[in-house]
Amino acid sequence: MKALVRLSMLFCFIVLMLSVSWDGKNGKNVGFRLTEAYAASADFNLDGSVDILWRNKSTGQNKLWQMNGPVLDSELTMQPLYDRNWAIVGTADFSGDGSDDILWRNKVSGNNALWLMNGTLYAYTVVLPTMSDPNWTIVATADFNNDAWPDILWRNAATGENIIWLMSGAMLNSVVWLPAVTDLIWEVGGTGDFDLDGSVDIVWRNRSNGYNMLWLMKSTNMYSVVWLPTNPDTNWKIAAAADYNGDGAPDILWRHKTKGYNAIWTMIGATVIEVLQIDSEPDTNWEVVGPR
Ligand SMILES: [Ca+2]
Ligand SMILES: [Ca+2]
Ligand SMILES: [Ca+2]
Ligand SMILES: [Ca+2]
Question: What residue range is the signal peptide (predicted)?
Answer without folding.
Answer: none
